[in-house]
Amino acid sequence: MDKKLTLTTHRVIQRQQNWFLRNSKSIMLEDIVSWQIKATGKPLYLAASAATTLLVYFNDSFALFSGFFLMLYLMTRQHRIHIVSPYTVMVLPIEEVEENRLSSMVELVRQAKRNRMEVLKQKEQASTPAFETTHRKSA
Fold first, then answer.
1. What per-residue confidence (pLDDT) applies to 96?
2. Side-by-side strand order, sheet with 5-7
3. Element (H, E) at 69
4. Contact (CB, 8 A) for 14 and 25
């Protein structure tokens, strides 16, 4: 799909590159439980705002810092796609993505998930015998 997100026949892979670290996170298509689009911010800014709010008790100038960190939190809030599976949550930023590209990406992943589930059902049906017999051991 792009340099940060790859859709294969089996999974969705997200690649993250920092200056020193390269990391990837993947979710199997059959494990995807739901999609959510949420506005999320950096929780560090919210925690710093709460901490400096408590310091207002000692000095009133900390109220400015508290407001500053709160504004940073509100300014960094962005809409992100949260792909939820039983084991992990993959957060995909929606940066510079047009609305029609976003809906086509979601539909592409849904279609790939449907195809994967059909392949798994066919494999399951092929592996089960047409009839099963049970034998009891006589004592």
1. 45
2. 5-7, 11-17, 22-28
3. helix 62-75
4. yes
